[in-house]
Design a protein that fits this description.
By secondary structure, the chain is mostly beta strands. The chain has strands at about 1-5, 10-15, 20-25, 35-40, 45-50, 60, 70-75, 80-85, 90-100, 110, 115-120. A hairpin with a 4-residue loop joins β7 and β8 (about 80-85). It is globular and about 40 Å long.
Length: about 120
């Protein structure tokens, strides 16, 4: 029903910035929230941020609050994650997801394949 494709990952030095994008396609997108999750090697996948398609309403994990900004463009059906003041601890595969807007993986039904973000010290 919904297809998601992430882009924008790469290598950046600590303190730098990076912008991730998620292109979405499908029906009834306005009923979904767009979420970003990340997973570092050997760790559980964790919630990063989310935004609703139907309204500008955002939520952030404490670990990224004040450094990351989530946004969406309903005209282009894209969601973005602007990451600033990056730390080595931010290194992970970042996933775009569409779902209910919860902070748990179980709240999202559709997932992208992920994009690697590596922050060097």
């Amino acid at each position: 029903q919904v297809q998601l494709v992430e882009s924008g990952g790469g290598l950046v030095q600590a303190g730098g910035s990076l912008r991730l994008s998620c292109a979405a396609s499908g029906r009834n997108l306005s009923s979904f929230a767009m979420g970003w999750f990340r997973q570092a090697p050997g760790k559980e996948r964790e919630f990063v941020a989310r935004i609703w398609w139907s309204a500008i309403s955002t939520d952030y994990a404490d670990s990224v609050k004040g450094r990351f900004t989530i946004s969406r463009d309903t005209t282009k059906n894209t969601a973005a994650l602007q990451m600033s003041s990056l730390k080595p601890e931010d290194t992970a595969v970042y996933y775009c997801a569409a779902g209910s807007g919860e902070r748990r993986e179980s709240g999202y039904d559709y997932w992208g394949r992920g994009t690697q973000v590596t922050v060097s010290s």
